[in-house]
Amino acid sequence: MRPRTLDEVLGQRHLLGQGTPLRRLVESEAPMSLFLWGPPGTGKTTLAYVVAGVTKRRFVEISAVSAGVKDVRAAIDTARRELGMTGRQTVLFVDEVHRFNKAQQDALLPAVENRWVTFIGATTENPFFSVISPLLSRSLLLTLESLSDDDIRAVLRRAVTDERGLAGRNTLAPEALEHLVRLAGGDARRSLTYLEAAALLADDITVEVVEKAVDKAAVRYDRQGDQHYDVISAFIKSMRGSDADAALHYLARMIEAGEDPRFIARRLVIFASEDVGMADNTCLQTAVAAAQAVQLIGLPEAGINLAHAVIHCALAPKSNAVVKAIGAASDDVRRGLIGQVPGHLRDAHYPGAAKLGHGKGYKYPHDFEHGLVRQDYAPEETRERRYYEPTRHGAEAGLFERWSRIRDFLRGQP
Question: pTM here?
Answer without folding.
Answer: 0.54
